[in-house]
Design a protein that fits this description.
The complex is a heterodimer of chains A (132) and B (126). Chain A has helices spanning 3-9, 23-54, 56-66, 69-96, 103-131. Chain A is an all-alpha fold and 132 residues long. The relative contact order of chain A is 0.10. Chain A has a single domain (22-131), classed as Fumarate reductase/succinate dehydrogenase, transmembrane subunit (3 helical TM bundles of succinate and fumarate reductases). Chain A is built from five helices and no strands. By secondary structure, chain B is mainly α. Chain B contains five helices and no strands. In chain B, helix 2 crosses helix 4 (62-90). The longest helix of chain B has 31 residues, at 94-124. The relative contact order of chain B is 0.11. Classes of the chains: A mainly alpha (132), B mainly alpha (126). The A-B interface holds A 32, 35-36, 38-39, 42-43, 45-46, 49-50, 52-53, 55-56, 59-60, 63, 67, 79, 82, 86, 89-90, 92-93, 96, 124, 127-128, 131-132 and B 27, 30-31, 33-34, 37, 41, 44-46, 48-53, 55-56, 59, 72, 75-76, 79, 82-83, 86, 110-111, 114-115, 117-119, 121-122, 126.
Chain lengths: 132, 126
């Protein structure tokens, strides 16, 4: 048996896919996924800012894209990711102080994180559309 | 008996030589991001539908420009640190990991520089 065969035959410790997803686990994973989403989304922010210095015609083109149906879909996804990551970050600050680690509390925090992010997204868009 | 020198124990920087630096900077930028992203969201809501002249006037005004640059720098540094952790966690091949970590820094630098350049150019006059 070669070295690689021995390695391949070794049992692996169980990973994500065998566990039943529970709320605290889902919010923990989503904190990372929303982080990656915002990371890519910052390209849109840079693009929008650069479009302003490129000139009025190009700015109108980019602003038109953001104002389209697809643009609204992407921007509302961006808003939710930002709100989720923001609330999740506040949870992490709480945990950094050693507080809020009890099992029941963790479930409540995860629920507030998830529900709060959706509520904040809706509020932001209601205000945005009301002004527009 | 510890094999580590008294100086290294006092410094507490460990083998990676940055101690809790990554964690600390992640939290520091995270704290800064809270008010800065709220400012950014409010700014975007206020600016929706703005024509080019209005966009230049708003982003070029000193207070907006200063806080927008702060937001960009804090957010981009925060996301560089976060993506670094994700890459270190999930990319196991040494060469691929190194390339990914470099690409992460390049990406973040380009995003930050492009954004800050645009804001400054708007501020100083297009």
């Amino acid at each position: 048996m070669s070295q690689s065969d021995v390695k391949a035959a070794r049992p692996l410790s169980p990973h994500l896919q065998i566990y039943k997803p529970i709320l605290t686990m889902v919010t923990s994973i989503l904190q990372r996924i929303t982080g990656v989403g915002l990371y890519i989304g910052m390209l849109l922010v840079a693009w929008w800012l650069v479009s302003i210095v490129t000139g009025p015609a190009y700015y109108d083109f980019v602003a038109g894209l953001f104002g389209s149906i697809l643009g609204y879909l992407v921007l509302s996804g961006f808003t939710w990711a930002l709100m989720f990551h923001l609330l999740g970050g506040l949870c992490h600050f709480l945990w950094d102080t050693g507080r809020g680690m009890e099992k029941g509390t963790l479930d409540k925090i995860a629920f507030v994180n998830a529900a709060g992010s959706i509520a904040l997204t809706v509020v932001v868009w209601i205000i945005a559309l009301a002004i527009a | 008996m510890s094999m580590r020198t008294p100086l290294s124990q006092v410094r507490g920087l460990g083998s990676a030589r940055e101690g809790t630096g990554h964690f600390w900077h992640q939290r520091l930028t995270g704290i800064a991001n809270v008010p800065l992203t709220i400012f950014f969201v409010v700014l975007l809501i206020a600016m929706q539908g703005a024509d080019h002249a209005t966009a230049v006037a708003v982003i070029g005004s000193p207070v907006v420009a200063i806080f927008l640059i702060l937001a960009i720098l804090s957010v981009v540094y925060h996301m560089k640190l976060g993506m670094q952790i994700i890459l270190e966690d999930y990319v196991s091949g040494e060469l691929v990991k190194t390339i990914c970590l470099m690409a992460n820094i390049f990406f973040c630098t380009i995003v930050a520089l492009a954004s800050v350049f645009a804001i400054l150019k708007i501020s100083f006059g297009v």
